[in-house]
Design a protein that fits this description.
Length: about 260
């Protein structure tokens, strides 16, 4: 078991994960140097991999088929045991990993579903006069809206606008809603949306996300969307745009008893 941080090796881990709706975000972060990988086994094949992103240390992605090996990797993570963690795991490993964590760390575990969608037909378009695609000149607006570009999946706002896609609602010269690609791979573009509380219910997120999804399709890629099982607002937008559920994983939310 070893920690992988060299970019050439991170690329190999991303290759080994493959390009699917459930791997698009961790693979993207690995390729952009925004995540570390804990690997059991030899590359390009591996027994298990845990991907820990720099902006979301508490939400590592776990890939593999053996709960015991994944637990060994999880226990080595940066910040494990120092804060509540929520590893994202395959559904079939949720119960055995929960039991191991409870036994080994005396932690409580609450399972929380993570729902994955894709859009394989033309996106349903929505229009709002305040919403448009964002360009390089809008980097400062992005910086005001989200203080850390890493949490948008890119090292800089300029990187997002040149190598990803974004659209947003502008009111009085200020960005109040945003849809953007959290991740871009050869086959997929994963979309995230955010709306300031005061501007929810205006249709801004749907209009912005439809622009981003259409641009992803124009590039010959498939739009992807993931949301928590009870995130009704996000799931509702995905359904409006035409996304269909294709997969589920599980967050193991850990906390002290």
């Amino acid at each position: 078991m070893r920690l992988v941080q060299i970019q050439k090796e991170l690329d190999l881990v991303a290759d080994a994960l493959g390009d699917t709706p459930e791997t698009v975000i961790p693979a993207h972060l690995l390729r952009r140097g925004l995540a570390d990988a804990y690997v059991a086994g030899s590359m390009p094949r591996f027994d298990a991999v845990v991907v820990q992103s720099h902006p979301w240390l508490e939400e590592p992605w776990c890939f593999g088929s053996d709960a015991f090996i994944l637990w060994e990797l999880l226990s080595k993570l940066d910040k494990w045991g120092q804060r509540d963690m929520s590893p994202n795991v395959p559904s079939y490993l949720a119960d055995p990993l929960s039991s191991l964590i409870q036994q080994e760390e005396n932690l409580r575990v609450r399972q929380y579903g993570d729902v994955y969608h894709t859009l394989t037909r033309r996106v349903n378009s929505f229009i709002a006069p305040e919403v448009r695609q964002l360009e390089m000149r809008d980097a400062d607006l992005l910086a005001e809206f989200r203080k850390d570009p890493h949490r948008l999946g890119f090292k800089t706002y300029e990187d997002l606008l040149s190598n990803g896609l974004a659209a947003g609602a502008l009111v009085d010269g200020r960005l109040v809603a945003l849809a953007h690609t959290n991740a871009m791979t050869e086959n997929f573009g994963d979309i995230g949306v955010y709306t300031d509380d005061a501007w929810r219910g205006m249709g801004f997120a749907s209009a912005a996300a439809s622009i981003v999804a259409r641009r992803i399709q124009d590039l010959g890629k498939t739009p992807a969307w993931s949301a928590g099982e009870d995130n009704e607002a996000s799931l509702r937008i995905a359904a409006k745009l035409g996304f269909v559920e294709v997969w589920r994983r599980v967050y193991l939310n850990t906390f002290r008893a």
